[in-house]
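Appendix B, record 7
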Amino acid sequence: MTIAVEDPLEILPVTLELRALVTVLAGLNGVGKTRLLKQIQRSAGDPARLISLHELCAWLYRLIEERPDLEEATEEVDPLEVDQEITLDAVRSIVGRGYTEIRWYAIAFEDSPFAPIVGEDVIPFFVVSDGDTEYSLADMGLGELAAHVLLWTLWYVREKSDLLLLLDEPDAYFPPRSREPLLDHIATVAATRQQAFVLTSHSREVIERALQHSDVLSYLGRVDGKVVLTTVAEEVREIVQQVLYPRAHVELVAWVEDESAHALATALLARLDANTLDRLALYWAKGTSDLTEMRARLPRPATHPRQLEFAFIVDGDEAPPAARTGLWPAVALPGGLSPDELFQKFAPLAAGTLSALLGRTPGFIGAMLAKVEGLDPHDWTNDLAAQPGLDRSQVLRALAEACLDGDKEGVLIEEFRGRLSGSGLRTFSAM
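Structure tokens (predicted):
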């Protein structure tokens, strides 16, 4: 299928050739991906339906604030009979929750923003059960809501095989682990229902997954002020591998004491210099004794060519071992406290960060924090990480980010910067 693109500014490609049912348009921010989708919609006419998750989710959130009684409307309609294998299992996979029940509804609503897409004046409503907890879309975080909205919309137009569905960065609201199953679901829908998809993305997971299939990935760039489309597979692969996501060489292997320390160290390093994480392999051990023993068994040669370095990162409540000739350095995390103590001290001060990263409402986060109030730091962290429906590593990452956001003065980051720059390691010399 070849689409003629009409562009009044004459900066977009004049045609777009769709050589597969799913086309992924990759490109940096600001290159013109969204503009191209909108012009495709105008040029292709009725079969083209533009789905902007950002606008749809924002509209639903506003509606819920204005109409807190909206759930009552579900009492007047039956739940939709949605297929389990293709759709509902995909929701579980993308969201990352083992819902025990999913109920989707279509509620009549005048001037619905979904009408241009699905062809009816209806809006979605969702109710799910996660273990013993039942909640509706009003209590969903943005990532969870976006998954339900997108898959509900795709399911609702399942009978229209001639559609060209245009998705503007649908992966932007999902964590990395959810992006590949999202693209897999879109591919399944396209093949099963013979619908064509064009989606834009600058997500590494989606782009590298698209590279595995012929004629799926194209690259949008700018040359002399005009948007240029690269479609030759070899050229696209070269751009992705050498320009977008060049392979980094590991320069430093480091160990921390445990999983909490790993989450905190990763968050700190990302704030100091995100590029450092591409050159670092970071692992966690089983406590201080492990680090001490490994450090003693990994001597530092006097004539080491410095192509690969090693380091040991101890908790902040412990004094790092003194520097010794012939041993790799030990660096302490900042704050003078253990990671769990830092989480307990600072993370509640940035509950909004926890809400955003865990995809839970502020009320849910407040209830979580109230439930663990008064526990010792280790149990406090472990109980939060054991919340039903939440992944432990996801919770620890969220606690680490919230901890740094709660440290309003940025003392922890600057303290860690000083310790790294004074470690004598080449990897951190520029800090």
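Remarks on this record: The chain has 16 helices and 15 strands. The longest strand covers residues 122-130.
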